[in-house]
Design goal:
By secondary structure, the protein is α+β, with helices and mostly antiparallel strands. The chain is built from 9 helices and 14 strands.
Length: about 500
């Protein structure tokens, strides 16, 4: 089982560059959640504010133009009513005093007027006023407004046409009244200032409230950080999700789940250390006792027998230490998946079987391997760990198979799942009861009633190696009903 590198939570207070939220000068530079939210709130506001000023000015200009445009329309309509026609249908204008009353100048603006007869002859008013373009020429009795320039000033012009005979342009008169824009600009500025001046006070206040609102919003993060920082290094109890905001609840649930898994790992590690210490203490105590007895023994025959027992105990201790080192190697490799290479599982298994033939012959066990599959079963894995797995499975089968038995190793494709290979280690030993088949994969667990020597780590190592390679292991009954078979499945590399 993997030995996690626990990083204790720091207990000192963290001082942030922007305020008391989640930042630490000792940590690598990263994006601040506070700054991220603040930027996304202020950037649109600062972008939209100039746009709102432009829109406000446009609306204010339209609002300021409306009453003054209506006044121009009324004046030009009144002036048009003063136009008369003589006996030859030529337009005439009423006396100038009456006209002056209609088009009098104000204190702010200058008003100009013009009356043109047929052929463009100036009947009254300012002859230099700009006339309308063809597309701006008003219809008979209709008033059209346009912008223009006169004497270097921008003016607003209202124009209409009075005709006695629509079919003859000589019987028409064009009447225009122009007015400078001082009153309009003043009214527009008044409207804009009335709208924008409060914004100059409201926007900074809004920024201040946003700032303090964000500070209050990240306060639960600070409380959570402080609560975790005050914990003892060994305290892996879950954080109360009822005291955190809803947005943080999924994160805290995931954190609690990680803490639970870490707690389970540490508990298993502590049990393993205790069991390993106990397993190591027993053979070492036996070795010490045998050596003490050998020191007091004078009979050479008895002394030789005791030395054999010492050798046997040393071999068991060495086997246990080798198994513990192998297990540590498996755990250290769980994070080194980049060391995986392409491994021919059948060839590797054949080599291991060949290496264990002498041990099988010593117990007069028929150890063999069935014919290799037509397609080389290539898997991605760590060759050293896969060798350890196969070696443990075959060695276990030899140990727990009685003298004169047989052990068969099979590497074959999985008929039920495509692109998967099976490794079967079959024996005709006494078998494993169904109710303890899952427990035999626990560390240091051994089935009662067996006389074979072992550490109880072989199957645990085999399972961890199989799972590290994305596979698994299970125990099945032998086809003949005697003994069991260990079945390992691994994923094949694509062709």
């Amino acid at each position: 089982m993997k030995n996690p590198k626990q990083q204790p939570f720091p207990t000192r207070n963290r001082t942030a560059a922007w305020g008391p939220w989640l930042n630490d000068d000792s940590l690598p530079s990263s994006r601040s959640l506070f700054s991220e939210i603040l930027h996304w709130m202020l950037a649109p506001l600062l972008l939209l504010w100039p746009i709102s000023i432009v829109v406000t000015y446009d609306v204010a200009s339209r609002a300021a133009n409306k009453p003054h445009d209506q006044e121009l329309v009324d004046n030009v309509s009144a002036l048009a009513r003063q136009v008369r026609f003589d006996a030859n249908s030529h337009p005439l204008i009423m006396p100038s005093p009456a006209v002056a009353m209609l088009v009098r100048s104000s204190n702010e603006d200058t008003v100009y007027y013009q009356v043109l007869g047929g052929g463009g002859a100036v009947l009254a008013g300012d002859g230099g006023m700009p006339g309308p373009d063809d597309n701006e020429y008003p219809d008979n009795g209709k008033v059209r407004l346009r912008d223009g320039e006169y004497h270097g000033e921008s003016i607003r012009i209202a124009a209409t046409q009075v005709c006695q005979d629509d079919t003859n342009s000589a019987t028409c008169a064009l009447i225009q009244i122009g007015e400078t824009r001082a009153k309009r600009s003043a009214l527009s500025a008044q409207i804009v200032s009335g709208v924008l001046l409060p914004q100059f006070a409201i926007v900074p206040l809004a920024l201040i409230f946003v700032w303090f609102g964000l500070l209050r919003g990240v306060a639960p993060l600070n409380h959570l950080r402080d609560a975790i920082g005050r914990r003892r290094p060994g305290d892996l109890s879950p954080v109360d999700v009822q005291t955190v905001p809803d947005e943080l609840r999924p994160l805290i649930l995931a954190f609690n789940d990680m803490m639970a898994r870490l707690d389970h790992t540490l508990d298993a590690q502590q049990r393993f250390i205790a069991d390993a210490a106990h397993q190591m203490r027993t053979p070492l105590a036996g070795l010490r006792m045998q050596v003490e007895l050998a020191l007091d023994e004078t009979d050479p025959q008895q002394l030789r027998l005791m030395l054999h027992k010492v050798l046997s105990g040393a071999e068991r201790s060495a086997h246990l230490i080798n198994q513990l080192l192998a297990l540590a190697r498996v755990e250290a490799s769980t994070e080194k998946l980049d060391e995986f290479v392409i491994v021919d599982l059948a060839s590797l298994t054949r080599e291991i079987v060949a290496d264990l033939v002498p041990a099988a012959r010593h117990k007069k066990i028929d150890l063999g391997m069935e014919a290799l599959p037509a397609r080389a079963p290539l898997v991605s894995g760590n060759a050293v760990l896969l060798r350890e797995m196969v070696s443990n499975l075959v060695d276990n089968a030899i140990k727990y198979t009685p003298v004169g038995g047989h052990v068969t190793v099979v590497v074959e494709p999985d008929d039920t799942v495509a692109d998967r290979v099976l490794l079967r280690v079959q024996d005709n030993g006494q078998g494993i009861p169904v109710d303890v088949r899952e427990r035999v994969f626990e560390r240091f667990y051994r089935v009662l009633g067996t006389n074979a020597e072992g550490s109880g780590l072989g199957l645990s190592i085999a399972r961890e190696v199989a799972e590290l390679h994305g596979g698994g292991i299970r125990i099945e009954d032998n086809a003949g009903g005697v003994g069991v078979q260990m079945v390992v499945w691994l994923s094949l590399l694509p062709e």
